[in-house]
Predict the 3D structure of the following.
Amino acid sequence: MLALHTTSLTLVITDGVGDQPIRATGLVMVHLETIVSQMSKKPRIWVLRPSAISAKRSWDYLNRIAKNTHVGVDALSEEERQRLGLGKSDLPTDV
């Protein structure tokens, strides 16, 4: 660390990806623009960790859109079905 402290280098560490080089590379690529934009003459250490992801139901997002646009979810669904030229049975409801 003392050697790094005396330079103007940036050290990037991928933590939590184990021995999976593709995950480590992807993690660096996702954050590379931010890292480069904040590089300076001072040494920096970046510790990158993957965040947990979770899938959400599309119905939940449809409800959120309806709420934010002050439209009922049924009315929003029907409007989109008509716009897409789909019948009522072509799209699932509360899935």
